[in-house]
Amino acid sequence: MSSGLTLHDIARQAKVSKSTVSRAINNMPGISSDTRARVLAVCERMGFHINTNARALKTGGKNTIAVVLEEIRGFLSTEVIYGANQVARRRGFIPILLLAESGDPDGVTDFLNNISGVIYATGDTARRVRLPVSKWKIPTVCAVAICDDVPSVVIDDRQGGYIATKSLIDRGYRQVAVIMGPQDWLVSEERVRGYLDAIEGHCSPIIHYADWWTSSDGYKKAMEVLETRPEVNGFFAGDDHIAAGVISAARDVGKRVPQDIAVVGFNDSYVAVSVNPNIASVHVPLEEIGQRAAEILIDAIVGDAADLPPTERLQRIPCRLIERESLGLPQQTLRSLSG
């Protein structure tokens, strides 16, 4: 391979973009088999050996990316790291972990010498952050967090709130309340939006915000709802801890879960399977977020970041519902009974 060979040279010969070249030689989805074959044929003709990896064309041999965490003990961190590591290793990059102490991303700047790119991840939940990208001067992607200056990959909290609430509506519950965490949190806003989307045309909104995301906060708010709105027969809780508190409150006022009141939580955490009955919960796609953040980052390192359309700079990864005892009969059972 010529020492002056670049991704641009291959892209020009194959009549594709540089990011398409990157996807072809790394066997990534998103391009047709004909395009992949054409790119690989050009690589072979120009003397580029596929196993040397596209990053050598752009990075000059640097193959390390940094995953910068605000909180290494945060419940989101482990799966995001795992997902990013899977992609990085497969594409020939070595991930290292850095801790932004006290949530200060500027503190890691001095450690980014010879680093090809950064994935910045918050350790708890989605919110907006500001990053010193002008100092880092390397490709950067946010995971879970949102930064207006770089591509960001986050949980689709609105969609998660929607599927949680819709699972209650689909089972015939028409007095569905939501108990969310603090009102000024971005995730609270998004999850309540999903709740409102789902109940439209079915029931009136019953919205309560707790002081925090604990079972005691969930218990307190659920007791308020059940005392003032005894007709409520379904709860969407913004977190599994809150959901556990809702179940305790229902039990203390003589209601059975799920026979009298159905409950759906959020995050699919260990709490969901630690209480009786087990809590139906929205599973958040943390591993997928780590994977997608790494894909975007490495494409930017070895390809052309400008190829990412502005509409794709904020990517929301959808959630899925895990049905458990607190929701009652699964949908397929309900359909068979109604048939």
What this model shows, in words?
It is a single chain. This protein has 12 helices and 12 strands. The protein is of the alpha/beta class and 339 residues long. The chain has 3 domains: 7-52, Orthogonal Bundle (434 Repressor (Amino-terminal Domain)); 59-150 and 286-317, Response regulator (Rossmann fold), CATH 3.40.50.2300; 157-284 and 321-338, Rossmann fold (3-Layer(aba) Sandwich). The strands form 2 sheets. The protein has a 6-stranded parallel sheet, with helices on one face. Strands 7-6-8-9-10-12 form a 6-stranded mixed sheet, with helices on both faces. Strand 6 (176-180), helix 8 (186-199) and strand 7 form a beta-alpha-beta unit. Helix 2 crosses helix 3, helix 5 (77-90) packs parallel to helix 11 (286-302) and helix 7 (157-170) runs parallel beside helix 8 (186-199). The longest helix has 17 residues, at 286-302. It is elongated. The termini are far apart. The model is unreliable at 50-59 (pLDDT under 50).
